[in-house]
Amino acid sequence: MTTPSEALDPRVVPSQAWQLSPQTSSQEAIYLVREAPLRVTTQERLAAVMMRTPGMDVELVVGYLVGEGWVASYDQIDAVLLQPALACGASMDLADVRLTAEARPPAIDERPHLVRAVAGDASRHGEWPLPAVGSEVQAALGALAAAGDDLRVGQTLRQLAGGVHAFGLYRADGERLVVCEDIGRHNAMDKAVGWCLGRGLNDAWAFGLCSGRLSYEMVAKAARVQLPILASFSAPSSLGVETAERCGITLVGYLKDGEARVYSHPQRVQP
Question: Which long-range contacts (CB under 8 A, 24 or more apart) does 51-59 make?
């Protein structure tokens, strides 16, 4: 197994994965895009808790507050004070925004979508508020690959207009239960899970397949609905892998051309 050189970019973290193909299986050192929470407050009021890749945090906060209508213009932001979690003993990085006297931020109950909730302080003392997934279900790499082909065919809205994500739920042999599309991958997953729950099929699914990135939010959803295998054409984030490892979820990325990369609990995927 090769070891990558020391990462110079704070936006990535080193990790390990299992590279699988029908003929071989090998472990390798890789880098993951970093995902971490940022708590944003304005005048001691919570504005957002957002998952992001660290870097350009001031620009992120400014763009968010202006783009979401929290302030009327950039001129109403006096300063953005950043406090890294390690430096201030907090459970997440902090950004305190000082507004000018002219700023009139909306009340939380007027704009509830401004607060993006994550695990937050629950992880401060080593607790993990998500349930463990103990299913011993297994799926063959070939079944995942077949599902990948099926998901691409099932993206009818993407073929028509583009700009959407897809999420499918499948049995262990790769048989499709449902494929849903939405502009947001989180919404597509929610639709697929809701469709199955409404039909009593939540015991039938073995794995879910997403067209986009597997972040913390996607893995957390899988844990809450007891989905043992979560796969994607794309890559997971660092916190996505960490969460999957803790919750007992098998995380699969880069599903393409009959191959895949497994980031956690590889025993569920048969080469």
Answer: 51/116, 51/118, 51/215, 51/216, 51/217, 51/239, 53/11, 53/237, 54/10, 54/11, 54/93, 55/10, 55/11, 57/82, 57/93, 57/95, 58/82, 58/95
Task: Report the alpha-carbon distance of residue 13 to residue 238 in Å, rounded.
Answer: 7
Instruction: Note the CATH architecture for domain 36-123.
Output: Roll (3.10)
Of 98, 119, 126, 110, the closest CA to residue 51 belongs to: 119
> Mind giving me the DSSP string for 80-124?
EEEE-HHHHT-SSEEEEEEEPTT--PPPTTT-GGG----SGGGGT
Superfamily designation of domain 12-32+130-270:
Cytidine Deaminase, domain 2 (3.40.140.10)
Burial class (CB in 10 A: 0-12, 13-18, 19+), 157: middle
pTM recorded for the entire structure = 0.76
Do 12-32+130-270 and 36-123 agree at the fold level?
no
Burial tier of 93 (Cβ tally within 10 Å: 0-12, 13-18, 19+): buried
Q: Summarize pLDDT for 8-67 with one digit per residue, the tens.
A: 688 889 999 999 998 889 999 999 988 899 999 998 889 989 899 899 999 999 998 888
3-class secondary structure, 48: strand
Q: What is the DSSP string of 185-211?
A: HHHHHHHHHHHHHHTT-TTT--EEEES
